[in-house]
Write a structure and sequence with these properties.
Chain lengths: 398, 509
């Protein structure tokens, strides 16, 4: 019987490829759906979707959702939820406006204060969830009301703006070009190429290390194809963006954060422990993991990212309004679930959440170009969320 | 007189296990019929067959009740004819009142609107019958376990019970509550209600039972009529445990060294009912290379002892000392206990031992991630190599270490839990029911692994409800009952009879 088990471990290459694809169908399926949705809108909008101007807009419009989805994913994986992120983002935007516009504080200092405030908000909510075991749904529902109200209060019901140029650059700025390229921003293109190559090198080194330990999970052909496709996609996108105004600053921030969180969840001990906590809290605790403290940390992290998203959004609108952040939490949570996170905790990937955010973003953008009203846009988005989760559950039960 | 209940030739198998094999049980009208047997003898399974939890068709054999053959498909079917079972874990909703619980699912209602006047009147009548003086409005959560038990019986009476089944009804009751319950059973008997009493407490059985059926390894051994036959405790115990120990356990060389692990005067209280003491002044020692067993019935406090030692994972007001190599160690958190060199392999691997949806390798590395990581970054290659190594050593049968553990058999899951704790490199391994729910072949393998670990010089503390396992594997056995150690035997002197006697005698004190 043992021999038999060993034998299946070194099955034929084709069989291996098939079984690997089968066990990772979720991730590849998600990516294929995103590509399909993009292709669909590219065709029905007569090529508007991938026009450099539109692509830039798409990135800017989605940046704050993606940033918050990174934190939300950790919260969901740990088995909780955060409903307050939209309100917190709005509140931090308002705080930034008060500090920068009204008190004329230096914008770097103001941003630091805002991020710390976000951390404090996350800590306060996480404290009740982690140490008092009050359901996160309730704690963050309360937080949602509190910070929506506080945003209104410190803005005194009015919009505050505009921000100084330097702060606006956070969202509307682009990577400055060193080569005076007129048609093509070469710096941006080079940055894209460097990022693509660096990622590929890192992936190859990881694979070599795994191979030295006898680990050979992903079939080589797939590994090569995957790397080439990713590198190609990054270079292609940076080429498109470079032909407009170059890489938006916020895209760089988003990309770096994405890599950081992807690495953090896949490769670090703290990331691994969050998955164990969400997968089986009792087993995690009996394995010596400080489950309460870990939950607390995921909420602090969420608070900081919500604050950052709030800053990005305020900088993009160039004013802080009492309505900023309204309903963001729904898009963020939907992005995580479309991306394959499980509401029960323990399951979900950073790449999935980012793809989920872009699925929502591309649909928003594409449907707006097509002139579909906001009413039916919501209906369609809701059905897509339900369908994505249905497919997950269906596949799991099968 | 015809029997009210007859079960003939009942057979029930689970994958790989014969849970029941040719069980026969006949209950006469208006008698109290005791069913006794060791843990795992098949009592609970038999009652689940009878009450329809295991529906007709999932077992073979025949059930006749009141002279007719019955085919129950769920609990509702058996309740409709008047067979009502009261489980050890009571099935009451704590946040509802006595009256609401008694008529739950059977509401005194017209067109969906509950008639509270009738509900309360009937509840008062029922409570009077079972001798419980409480308002029908009282919430269950405000009642002690003894009174809750009475509410369960009142609920059974409300359903026109003809045969009442009680599964270990007195396990969590104190003496006066137990006596009241037994008196109630005798009173019900006077009213013509037959009951089946499942119990470990032979003293109670000899007090109230008219007939005693003994189960062993899923078969009926014999049925005694306490009015005619010799139903002495000795005879019952002998029949409960009577079986030969063959070569079912691997041989090993025993090299027992100096005392390494010691627990002194250990006391633990219940986490919610803080006045209830779960572990009472326990002292124990384990020497290098020694396998020490803890025998006892379910609820004796063995798991509570182990988990409280392991980082205070159970209980409140924990006091006592834990020593390693004669030096006191801090075991106040799980992390500290692990660092000190203690590992606890849980009795419930699915709930407490594994992240079921996760891969084999990630389950194995979880306790000691820093060992495969540098500055917080996991070396996935090394993690893979470690997991693959354990897979080979412990012969874990899985396609590869990327497989999710939820799909593996119980024996293989148990090996993964063992691997996980071996990876933490412990000096003391506490194994709680290490072979529960796994098949015979895997049991032998687990026993071999445990033996090998002892030979390497590890200290093993093994909790098991299977006495043959303790006798076959351990060098020394402590007997625990009601939170305290009530006996200690070396491997040479221990027998199942002696252990059972220690437990029974302690229960009578």
């Amino acid at each position: 019987m043992a021999d038999q088990a060993v034998a299946t471990g070194v099955a034929l290459p084709e069989r291996r490829l098939a079984s690997y694809l089968k066990s990772n169908i979720r991730e590849y399926g998600m990516l294929l759906s995103l590509v399909a949705i993009m292709a669909f809108f590219q065709i029905v909008t007569d090529g508007t979707l991938f026009k450099p101007l539109n692509l830039t807009n798409l990135v800017l419009q989605n940046s704050y959702i993606v940033i918050m989805a990174l934190g939300m994913l950790l919260v969901i994986v740990s088995g909780h939820i955060d409903l307050s992120v939209g309100s917190v983002a709005g509140f931090i935007g308002a705080l930034a406006a008060v500090l920068i516009v009204r008190f004329e504080l230096n914008f770097v200092l103001a941003m630091a204060i805002c991020l710390l405030t976000g951390a404090a908000i996350g800590a306060a909510q996480g404290y009740f969830v982690a140490f008092f075991r009050i359901p996160a749904f309730i704690v963050t529902l309360a937080g949602m009301l509190v910070f929506k109200g506080l945003a209104l209060a410190i803005l005194q019901g009015q919009s505050i703006g505009p921000f100084p140029q330097s702060f606006q650059l956070l969202s509307s700025g682009f990577i400055p070009d060193q080569f005076n390229g007129t048609d093509l921003r070469l710096t941006s293109l080079f940055l894209g190429i460097i990022a693509a190559v660096a990622l590929m090198v890192m992936d190859f080194r990881l694979r070599r290390n795994q191979f030295e330990h006898g680990m050979d999970e992903e079939p080589y052909s797939l590994f090569i194809i995957k790397n080439l496709v990713f590198a190609g996609a990054i270079i292609f996108l940076s080429y498109l963006l470079a032909s407009y105004k170059g890489l938006p600053n916020v895209l760089v921030i988003m990309f770096v954060l994405m890599l950081l969180y992807d690495f953090g969840t896949r490769r670090t001990t703290i990331g691994r422990r969050i998955y164990a906590l969400g997968g089986n809290e009792k087993a995690a605790r009996l394995s010596g993991i400080k489950t309460e403290r870990l939950t607390f940390y995921t909420f602090i992290n969420m608070g900081v990212l919500a604050a950052l998203a709030g800053l990005v959004f305020a900088a993009r609108l160039n004013t802080a309004t009492p309505k900023a952040g309204l309903g963001f939490e729904l898009d963020v949570i939907a992005a995580c679930f479309i991306g394959g996170a499980s509401a029960a905790g323990g399951v979900g990937k950073v790449t999935g959440a980012v793809i989920g955010a872009f699925v929502m973003g591309v649909m928003n953008n594409g449907m707006s170009i097509l002139g579909i009203g906001i009413d039916y846009q919501q209906v369609i988005k809701g059905l897509v969320l339900l369908a994505a989760v249905f497919v997950d559950v269906y596949n799991k039960n099968k | 007189m015809d029997a009210i209940l007859e079960m003939r030739g009942i057979r029930k198998t689970f994958p790989g296990v014969n849970a029941l094999d040719n069980v026969n049980l006949a209950v006469q009208p208006g008698e109290i019929h005791a069913v006794v047997g060791e843990n795992g003898a098949g009592k609970s399974t038999l009652m689940k067959v009878l009450s329809g939890v295991y529906p007709h068709g999932s077992y073979s054999g025949e059930i006749r009740f009141q002279g007719e053959e019955r085919r129950f498909h769920d609990i509702g079917d058996s309740e409709r004819v008047g067979i009502i079972i009261i489980h050890q874990e009571l099935a009451l909703v704590p946040t509802l009142s006595i009256a609401e619980n008694i008529f739950l699912g059977n509401e005194q209602a017209r067109r969906g609107i509950i008639d509270w006047a009738i509900t309360y009147r009937k509840t008062r009548e029922l409570l009077a019958k079972v001798g419980l003086r409480e308002s029908p409005n009282t919430l269950i959560t405000h009642l002690g376990v003894g009174k809750q038990q009475l509410v369960e019986i009142a609920k059974a009476l409300s359903k026109q019970v003809k045969l009442l089944i009680l599964d270990e009804p007195t396990a969590s009751l104190n003496e006066s509550d137990s006596d009241a319950l037994l008196a109630l059973l005798l009173e019900l008997k006077a009213h013509g209600i037959a009951s089946i009493l499942i119990s470990h407490k032979l003293r109670e059985i000899s007090k109230v039972a008219d007939t005693i059926t003994i189960l062993r390894d899923g078969s009926t051994v014999e049925t005694l009529d306490s009015r005619r036959d010799d139903a002495s405790e000795d005879r019952i115990i002998r029949h409960m445990v009577g079986r030969e120990l063959g070569d079912r356990f691997p041989k090993r060389e025993r090299h027992v060294g100096e005392t390494v692990f010691e627990i002194r005067n250990w006391n633990v209280y219940h986490p919610i009912h803080v006045e209830r003491q779960m572990v009472k002044g326990v002292n124990l020692t384990v020497r290098r290379g020694e396998i020490v067993g803890i025998a006892g019935l379910m609820g004796a406090g063995r798991t509570e002892l182990a988990m409280s030692v392991f980082g205070g994972s159970y209980g409140k007001r924990i006091s006592g000392q834990v020593l390693l190599h004669g030096r006191q160690v801090d075991v106040s958190t799980v992390r500290k206990a692990i660092t000190a060199g203690i590992a606890y392999v849980t009795e419930d691997r699915k709930a407490f031992g594994l992240v079921l949806d996760d891969e084999v390798k990630r389950n194995i590395s979880l306790v000691n991630l820093p060992r495969v990581a540098r500055r917080g970054v996991i070396n996935t290659g090394r993690e893979f190599a470690v997991a693959t190594d354990y897979r080979r050593q412990l012969k874990i049968r899985c396609a590869d270490v990327f497989q999710r553990v939820v799909n593996l058999s119980g024996g293989n899951q148990q090996k993964i839990v063992l691997s996980k704790w071996l990876f933490s490199d412990p000096e003391v391994l506490i194994l709680d029911e290490p072979t529960r729910g796994i098949d015979v072949g895997a049991k032998y393998e687990i026993h071999s692994i445990v033996g090998a670990l002892a030979s390497e010089g590890k200290c093993i503390l093994m909790i098991s409800s299977e006495m043959p396992e303790l006798l076959g594997v351990c060098d020394r056995i402590y007997v625990m009952n009601d939170g305290a150690f009530v006996g200690e035997f070396t491997a040479a002197e221990a027998t199942q009879e002696k252990i059972m006697h220690a437990i029974v005698k302690a229960g009578e004190r």
